[in-house]
């Protein structure tokens, strides 16, 4: 849940502590709604946990947020674009962390064999 909130913070350029606070600032609430929608949609946490993460005390904020986002998606192309960008960043960031952890557990010999195999398949490899 923290990773998704960080992706939204980076995308929106709203500090994490501001996203976690109960507020009436529309720009912040917009991204809090997106957070609730994605967290519930991807079953990252329960509605009460998601609401508490944003400084709310019950599940109703998360559920209302999800309902509103679904409604707005029917006509708001900018919202759809924002959600798609956040989803893809979150998805690839999550996968990159998994790959990094797996690579960290490999020996140099194993990494060398994977790189050789990739080259034999015609794939481009880059040092990192």
From TrEMBL:
InterPro entries the UniProt entry points to: DnaA_C, Trp_repressor/repl_initiator
Domain Chromosomal replication initiator DnaA C-terminal: 2-69
GO molecular function, one term: sequence-specific DNA binding
Lineage top rank: taxon: Bacteria
Pfam families reported for this sequence: Bac_DnaA_C
GO biological process terms, semicolon-separated: DNA replication initiation; regulation of DNA replication
UniProt name for this protein: Chromosomal replication initiator DnaA C-terminal domain-containing protein
Natural source organism: Robiginitalea biformata (strain ATCC BAA-864 / DSM 15991 / KCTC 12146 / HTCC2501)
């Amino acid at each position: 849940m923290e990773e998704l909130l960080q992706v939204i913070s980076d995308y929106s350029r709203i500090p994490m502590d501001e996203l976690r606070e109960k507020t009436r600032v529309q720009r912040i609430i917009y991204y809090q709604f997106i957070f609730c929608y994605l967290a519930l949609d991807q079953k990252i946490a329960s509605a009460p946990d998601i609401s508490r993460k944003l400084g709310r005390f019950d599940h109703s904020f998360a559920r209302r947020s999800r309902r509103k986002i679904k409604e707005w998606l029917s006509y708001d192309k900018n919202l759809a674009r924002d959600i798609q960008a956040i989803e893809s960043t979150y998805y690839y960031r999550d996968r990159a962390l998994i790959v990094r952890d797996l690579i960290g557990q490999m020996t140099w010999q194993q990494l060398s064999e994977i790189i050789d195999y990739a080259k034999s398949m015609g794939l481009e490899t880059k040092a990192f």
